[in-house]
Structure formats: structure tokens, C-alpha cells
Amino acid sequence: MKLIRQRESLGAEQDYRRALTILDAARGGATEPVLRVYQPRPTVAFGRRDELNPGFARARQAALDAAFTPLVRRVGGRAAAYHGGCLVIDHVEPDPDPKTGIQDRYRLFGDMVVAALEELEIPAQVGEIPGEYCAGEYSVHAPGTAADPQQPVKLAGTAQRVVAGAWYFSTVVVVAESEPLRGVLEDVYACLGVPWEPATAGCVADVRPGTTVAEVEDALMGVYDRYATYMGNGPVTGAAGTA
């Protein structure tokens, strides 16, 4: 499995288009399985339902006012926000029958994030929590934070896109600095008129203070290396770059 570790984000739109370019290569048989990892620039990724919402123009402006670039993605549900304190893992694989494993992938990759966090002694589990932003059955959450052990917080969201001959699975782990994300999401969701509970927007460092993106990345790469070897793709190999 080829690893692409971007040294820096290319920008919200460019990062997303790069993932779709890799997907196109995979569907044409022009690439082996690819894992791309990077820290994004401040972005609010809207879903198609958001784009059709009467309040979308105001929500888009609210993102811009908070210095987050608005992006409408082809995968995923409602609006999600991320920045340099997050880690994005884009996983692309050729597959002659990509539709068959859709739900299995959600379960598997959610469990892999949980396994990586548990290696850092961070309690986590897969499942939606009431009131979370961009709600999903396979979100990864912690049952509580260091400040409030009774308040569950979302730590990671996942989404996937399936095309003939390949699939693309994207995971965003929120590692640090949850406050700016919570703030922009409050403004965006207010404009969209979509109810949610801001207290559910947290990060890994809220659960285990001091946790860094590098630590989470190392733990995840270890889990993905075991996955790749088990699937017969060989170990995760590659180098840092801007691809």
C-alpha cells in the first residue's frame, strides 16, 4: 500500500480534488491502494443537503467570516469543520465490486480509529451520539472528556465515495483545538436552521490533554500497516511529499 504524507495542505478545494484524482486512477487500474495523510487548512465541508438549504448562502458566509474555506463535498452528510489540528486519512483502493463492502468498510475503519486511540489510552467507541454535528452511525466518539467525564464528544467522522472499479474512504480525526471548530459550527448550523448540541464537538486532546497530531498519526499508521498486510497489500510504504 502506497503512503502519501503531504507536507502541507494544498487548500480545501485542491486537497479534495487530489483525492478524486487518485480515485480516478484507481478505477482505471493505474494505481495500487493509496493512503494519503495530511493536516488540512481551516475548512467547512458542506454536504449536498446543506447546499440545497435556504440558509446555505448565509452559512457559507459565516464560514468565510470565521476564516474557514467553504467546500461542498460529494460524500458525507451535514457540515463538518476541520483545521490544522485535525488529521485527514484518505484511503483509495481499486475494487471490482466496491458496492458490496460499503457498510463493512464503515465498521472496519471506525474500529481501526478506535484501536489507534486505545493504543494512546484514549477511550473511544463507534456510534452516533445525540446531537452531534454531521451525525453518522459510524462516528467515533469518547464517552467523556477530562473536564466533563459525563459529556460524550465526537472525535472522528467518516465518509466514502464509490465508483465503478474503486472506492474512496475518508476519515477526519479531530486531535486538538476544538474551540474554533465548535464556534464556526455554531454559526453555520444556526444559518442552516439545523439543531445540534455544541458540547458534542470535541477533540482527542479534550479527552487526553497534550495529545498531538503526530502521536495520533503514528498510532493510526501502525493500525493501517497491520490492515494492509492482512489484506495482502503489503506494508504501508511511502515518503513525505506534496502529491
What is the typical, i.e. mean, pLDDT?
92
Distance between the termini: 15 Å
Sheet having the most strands: 8 strands, mixed
Total number of beta strands? 11
Strand arrangement, largest sheet? Answer: 7-8-9-10-6-2-1-11
Query: What fraction of residues sit in β-strands?
Result: 15-25%
Rg measurement, Å: 17 Å
Order of helices and strands: EHEEHHEEEHEEEEHHHE
What class would the helix/strand composition place it in?
Answer: alpha/beta
Q: pLDDT under 50 segments (min length 5)?
A: none
Number of helices: 7
Helix residue percentage: 25-40%
Could you say which overall geometry the principal axes of the C-alpha atoms support? globular
Task: Note the main attributes of this structure.
25% strand; alpha/beta; 243 residues; three-stranded mixed beta sheet; 7 helices
